[in-house]
Amino acid sequence: MPGWGGREQNQFYSVTLREDATSQEKTVYVLYIIERGSKQVMVNLDVLTTTGAVKEQADMNTLIQQALISSQGWLPGLVTANGRIDEQQSGALIEYLKNLTPGMKRRLYLLVHCYDASHMSDNIQCSQRLAEQLRLATFDGQYELNIDGHGALTPAPDNRLQPALRFVFWPGR
Fold first, then answer.
1. What φ, ψ does residue 14 adopt, rounded to 5°?
2. Is 71 helix (H, G, I), strand (E, B) or coil?
3. pLDDT in tens, the chain (173 residues)
4. pTM value?
5. Domain ranges of the chain
6. What is the CATH architecture of 55-169?
7. Strand 108-113 with 146-149, pairing
8. Architecture of domain 1-52
């Protein structure tokens, strides 16, 4: 089914947004299904209703979830301005990372890459500065994520040469 995915082959989730134009009400449906080792199927449906803005964050959460299905790749949602993380525009990513389970936080390694400087040392400094800022922004009071700055030591995910966030689960699956 398009839009379905999960970190394990017996785990599925879907996030759907429904907007009512007349009442300005928005409803987010989050469906989670898993088949346990005992062949017991568990189903959870959360329904959230609000008149506030949710589409952008719901869409970003879906993109982040889809990326994290893999063992490694690029995470969307990192926005920078003037050499710093824009915490408001990166809010969906920051909140998602803060709310990961402790087990996922221990296995997840985040690597910040900067590409726009002509000298590698400048790219490394930029990456390390952004990594430290992201580490502080995602700290939940108990668990600190593994975040490091790696400069332009890997090819950029696209042609924009904007700072980017790569992830690796270690050990892999």
1. -150, 140
2. coil
3. 334 555 556 777 777 778 777 777 888 888 888 887 788 888 888 888 887 765 555 588 888 988 988 899 999 999 999 999 999 999 999 999 999 988 899 999 999 999 989 999 999 999 999 999 999 999 988 889 999 999 998 999 988 899 999 999 988 64
4. 0.67
5. 1-52, 55-169
6. 2-Layer Sandwich (3.30)
7. parallel
8. Single Sheet (2.20)
